User: Fold this.
Amino acid sequence: MHINCHKCQKAFQIKENDLAFYDHVSPVFAGRKYSIPPPINCPHCRQCHRLAFRNQTALFPRTAFPGGEKIFSMYPPSAPFPVMRNEDWFSDRWNALDYGREYSFEKSFMEQLYELHKVVPRYTAINNIRTENCEYCNNASDDKNCYLTFSMSNAEDCLYSESVWGSKDCVESTLTIESELCYDCTNCTRSFRLQSSFNSENCSDSLFLLNCRNCRDCFGCVNLRNKKYCIWNEQKSKEEYELFLRSFDGSSFQTREKYRKEFEDMTHQHPRPHTIMHQVEDCTGNCVLESRNVKNSNFIQHGENLDNCFNLYDKTNDCRDYTFFGRSAELIYDCCTCGNNISRLIFCYTCRNQSSDLFYCISCDGCKNCFGCVGLWKREYCILNKQYTKDEYEKMATRIIEHMRTTKEWGEFFPVRFNPMPYNRSIAYRYYPISEEEAKLKGYSWYEEDIKDFPDAIKASQLPDGLPETDAPITVKSALSGRPFRITTQEIERYRELNVPLPRESYEERMNKRAQKLGSPQLYERTCAKTGKAILTPYPPDSPYIIWDRKEYEDTFQ
Ligand SMILES: [Zn+2]
Assistant:
């Protein structure tokens, strides 16, 4: 069937297998199935709506509840609910059931859930899954000694990085897997001492590589395989290479910028595959790794039978409209920032850790069979944070679904007023930037640092070209936006070890730039520059690159 999207008005199709999925995840209470209706918004609008709920890289200064202590949290000061320090939240010093209330059939479901949403405390940040010394991190699991890193797992001693897994000592890196001592890398795997490189694998002691495999001691190279001592794709002797490298002042910002531009121009002359896919079967989208039957999805690793999903890792099966983060998840529908051993979560936000059979829940951990609950930990059979018996729960849940059908609330994700994220700090802004005015018209909030809080901030242009003389912290106004950001002593020490210059832009802006190299979730119809075959690619038609069908590319550069 065709439906006109209620948001963008464009027609979209609901296929047989979509209907079968909605039927499959529809809840059964007391032997009767309560069908989830098809969505009223198109897949793109649904994805954008969830992306705006996702805090990927922002930490906000705010006060903790109770006590008023200054903390950094994934929630901005404008969020309507109190935020507790993690150690308080995961303790018996409070009880989320104290906020419980009776469901009223006189008011709408969302109205009542919103009242609860405003008052129940949340934890500071998602950095409590087996992590150590990762206070200024979010969405962290199994990490140690990381600082301002996001969506990381099994990472150690990393700094200013995003989606880095199983890696050590990486700085300024994005989607970097099983690698060490990398700097400014994006989508690099099993690499060592690699800098300013993109989409390369098994490479070491090199700078400025694109789409290279098994290379070492190379500089400014594209599409090379099994090479050593190459500069700008030309074979050199060991001595020539070493002579060149001695003339390269890695700590100079100007020098790096000059080579970065030269390298960027060079990449325009070489073909690149139309999507990033690795060991996939029957998949569409971009950045899909080791997956099967994944459609219309981005940033997926170890996924199976997924559709319209975004950024899911580590065993995610049979899910749709699921935005972040997987790690053993199945039968998840229309959820955002949920994961870690979860199943049958429907219309949920930030629910994690062995949770199952949750409907319209927010920030519930280790919960089962709950409906419209907020901030519960290890509870079962609750509605609006009120405890029921199993029988009472099932009876109430069915009545509430019937009620929600009459108010047209059953079958859609939370409305925008539930979104605590300022639009310009959500991951949606990375891919779909809009003005403050437009964001506010759509009901989103907006966030800017108060420049008065940084009276000692200097302009980025006032930074030394090379490394500073001392390790004293510096506050800088971003060369891109003027946004102030701090460069700490710890950070300067790491840059000194790596012999790289100080950054000129805020860490979030740097992360956004690296992530944009991986392409937006939007795919464009183009043709392969070699064969003319029709392709769907994240590179827009006006991008300067030579795009080849991925299969053609792989056959040529084996
Ligand atoms: Zn739409």
In short: Residues 524-556 form one domain.
